[in-house]
Design goal:
The chain is α/β, with parallel strands linked by helices. It has helices at about 1-20, 40, 70-80, 115-120, 150-160, 180-190, 215-225, 245-250, 265-270, 280-290, 315-330; strands spanning about 55-60, 85-90, 105-110, 125-130, 140-145, 170-175, 205-210, 235, 255-260, 270-280, 300, 300-305. The chain folds into two domains: about 55-145, 3-Layer(aba) Sandwich (Rossmann fold); about 150-275 and about 305-330, Rossmann fold (3-Layer(aba) Sandwich), CATH 3.40.50.
Length: about 350
């Protein structure tokens, strides 16, 4: 009996010890049903990315995009535009509907018939017109004026200064008539009354002027007549310099001066220099204002020499010509009234 009582007490003690050491089980929370969160959802939200705006545009409107002036102008515009994060597009013509808000600057190589419509269609766009003396600057229109009389004067001077016995002449369009006088003035500015020592005795320089759209045969006849006076140097105006006429001149023995760069080696070997308007210098000076939205600017193009053959046109004579150009720019010399 005593043993049974001891066993009962022992079992009761073990039972009490087991109850005191037991740890209550904790309920494990369950995740709500649904798809697992993505990595993007698990990270801290960030601001939505904004699209990079397209770069602003500069339009070069040139009826003949392949002309030497258009090519050189586009190259310079590309340099200026790239530095400002802009892009340049060439167009042969422009309509008001083409002027989207991203068009910052439009450069026109000739005054289009719809110029007023373009100016009115986009007042926030700055326009730059090159070469039209009749255009007046406006709030969103700036102008670079070309003076063809200056170029003709310098061409006459160059032709005379490189010719033995002053024997120089020009093929010119008959309009404007001032071109003829400017060329003659340029020659006489160098040699006065340019009377040769050897016959045939005529007063140089000479000019043959025809309508700009004259046939090749008409220009060839004019050249044949000029050559009876034993020419040494001939200037050909850029407005009449068709490929066929230049090909004809390439076969001559005369020294050539022109208003556009020679296209091939046959011309270059006779080419003394190209005399043309300097558009790039005034473009550089007006560009900051155009970028800033400043219209109403104006400048006059100077004259520049390029494609110079120093064998035919010596450095000393080049320096003399540069002095003449500087006087024209300064206004101390006038192409039509040089005295």
């Amino acid at each position: 009996m005593k043993i049974n009582f001891i066993i009962l007490l022992t079992l009761l003690a073990l039972l009490l010890a087991a109850c005191s050491n037991a740890t209550p089980a904790l309920a494990t929370p369950t995740a709500p049903e649904g798809p697992a969160p993505t990595q993007a959802q698990a990270t801290t939200p960030t601001a939505a990315a904004t699209a990079t705006p397209a770069p602003g545009k500069v339009f070069l409107v040139a009826p003949d995009p392949g002309s030497p002036l258009a090519v050189s102008l586009k190259a310079r515009l590309s340099e200026l535009a790239t530095a400002q994060g802009l892009v340049v597009e060439s167009r042969a013509a422009l309509q008001p509907s083409d002027l989207a808000p991203d068009v910052r600057i439009v450069v026109l190589l000739a005054a289009p018939s719809n110029l007023n419509d373009l100016l009115a269609a986009s007042s926030q766009t700055q326009f730059l017109l090159i070469g039209d003396a009749s255009a007046s600057p406006q709030s969103n229109l700036s102008v670079i004026l070309q003076d063809p009389d200056r170029a003709a004067f310098v061409a006459g001077y160059v032709a005379a200064v490189i010719s033995t016995d002053w024997r120089s002449a020009a093929l010119l369009p008959d309009s404007p008539a001032s071109l003829q006088q400017a060329f003659l003035n340029g020659g006489s500015y160098w040699c006065g009354r340019c009377a040769p020592i050897h016959g045939p005795i005529v007063i140089f320089p000479l000019v043959s002027a025809l309508p700009a759209n004259s046939s090749l045969g008409a220009w060839q006849n004019a050249l044949t007549q000029l050559k009876t006076n034993i020419l040494e140097t001939l200037y050909v105006d850029p407005t009449i310099s068709s490929p066929d006429l230049l090909k004809l001149l390439a076969g001559q023995t005369m020294v050539l001066v022109g208003g556009q760069s020679p296209a091939d080696d046959a011309l270059r070997q006779h080419w003394a220099a190209t005399v043309s308007s300097d558009i790039l210098t005034p473009l550089n000076s007006l560009w900051p204002g155009l970028l800033a939205g400043k219209g109403g600017q104006s400048a006059t193009a100077s004259v520049t020499l390029s494609d110079v053959n120093s064998t035919l046109f010596s450095p000393g004579r080049q320096r003399l010509t540069q002095q003449v150009i500087a006087s024209l720019v300064a206004g101390t010399l006038d192409a039509l009234t040089p005295q």
